[in-house]
Each structure stands twice: as structure tokens, then as C-alpha cells.
């Protein structure tokens, strides 16, 4: 079978349903910022501190998405989470993304597409990306799933 089915839907409705000529980033890294544990007894005297923190978080997420986009990825598949802000930036960049994908599916995808699984977004390069002819969201019964088809790696063996 020339395809892999991932039992996950895209994370944001603004993302494309179909990506042709997919360049796939496989991540074992979250697109979210670990929030520092605020001590609940600590009254934040200065509301602008919260704004500053949120703005900083937003910039970090935007930089992660810019980095992924800059290496040419148009599909992101991660084992970890993607927070709302990151979903928004990915969607604006026209990138199809799914999250919380099982390790076994990640390994299958890596094999089929030729991608390397990257655990640090800073270190992603275009050579880590996998390729497939199509990545699309398909409705199966009541659920949406992601189909990755026409993975390039198969073609080499046939000719």
C-alpha cells in the first residue's frame, strides 16, 4: 500500500485540506512554550509584566513557525502538542499540521517519506524533510484522518 493513514485531523480549520507535493517536517518537539509555574501567592503588581511575557511567548512561537517554514516545510507532524497561537501562525503560513501522533506512526512516516524526526526545532534543516505526493484530511465515518500518499521513497525501488 502506497500510503500511510494517521488517525489525526489537522489542528486548525484555516489549514489547507490537501497539500500536494508535500514537504514534511516530523517533530518530536512541541510547538508550545512551557509556562513558568507562577506562584499563586505571588501578586503580579505590574500588569505590563504579563503583557511582556505573552508577547515574548508569541514571538518565540512565531519564530518556531518561521523556522519550519524557512526550510520549506508545508506539512508538520509532531508527537507533541501545538498550542493555539502556534496553530494560528501555522495556518497563516499555509502549513498543514497534526499533533500528538503515535511514535509508531512517526517511524512509519519517517521510513515512507525519507524524513528525519527532529527533536529540536532550532536545528531543523531542509535535508530533514520528507516528501509525499499528497497529504490530505479525509473524513472516515465520523472522524477526520490524515492520509499521506505517494511517498517518494517507493518510486526508487520500482525503476
Structure summary:
The chain is built from four helices and seven strands; from the N terminus they run ββαβαβαβββα.
Topology summary:
Layout: E1 3-6, E2 18-27, H1 47-70, E3 75-78, H2 84-92, E4 96-98, H3 103-113, E5 117-118, E6 130-140, E7 143-151, H4 153-158
Parallel strand pairs: 2-3, 2-5, 3-4
Antiparallel strand pairs: 1-7, 2-6, 6-7
Helix pairs in contact: 1-2
Description of the molecule:
A hairpin with a 2-residue loop joins strand 6 (130-140) and strand 7 (143-151). Mean pLDDT is 90; it is low at 154-159. The protein has helices spanning 47-70, 84-92, 103-113, 153-158, and strands at residues 3-6, 18-27, 75-78, 96-98, 117-118, 130-140, 143-151. It is an alpha/beta fold. Helix content is 31%, strand content 27%. Strands 1, 2, 3, 4, 5, 6 and 7 form a seven-stranded mixed beta sheet that branches. The chain has one domain: GroEL (3-Layer(bba) Sandwich), CATH 3.50.7.10. The protein is built from four helices and seven strands, in the order E-E-H-E-H-E-H-E-E-E-H.
**How is the biggest beta sheet arranged?**
7 strands, mixed
CATH topology: GroEL
Overall CATH class: Alpha Beta
The number of domains is 1
- Oligomer state equals single chain
Beta-strand content: 25-35%
Average pLDDT metric: 90
Q: Helical amount among residues, as a percent range?
A: 25-40%
Please count the helical segments. 4
Amino acid at each position: 500500500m502506497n500510503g500511510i493513514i494517521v488517525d489525526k485531523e489537522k489542528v486548525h480549520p484555516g489549514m489547507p485540506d490537501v497539500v500536494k507535493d508535500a514537504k514534511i517536517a516530523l517533530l518530536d518537539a512541541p510547538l508550545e512554550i512551557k509556562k513558568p509555574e507562577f506562584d499563586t501567592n505571588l501578586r503580579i503588581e505590574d500588569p505590563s509584566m504579563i503583557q511582556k511575557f505573552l508577547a515574548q511567548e508569541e514571538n518565540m512561537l512565531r519564530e518556531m513557525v518561521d523556522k519550519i517554514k524557512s526550510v520549506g516545510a508545508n506539512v508538520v507532524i509532531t508527537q507533541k502538542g501545538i498550542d493555539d497561537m502556534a496553530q494560528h501562525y501555522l495556518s497563516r503560513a499555509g502549513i498543514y499540521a497534526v499533533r500528538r501522533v503515535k511514535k509508531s506512526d512517526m517511524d512509519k512516516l519517517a521510513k515512507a517519506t525519507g524524513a528525519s524526526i527532529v527533536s529540536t526545532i532550532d536545528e531543523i534543516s531542509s535535508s530533514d524533510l520528507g516528501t509525499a505526493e499528497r497529504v490530505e484530511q479525509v473524513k472516515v465515518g465520523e472522524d477526520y484522518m490524515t492520509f499521506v500518499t505517494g511517498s517518494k521513497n517507493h518510486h526508487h525501488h520500482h525503476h
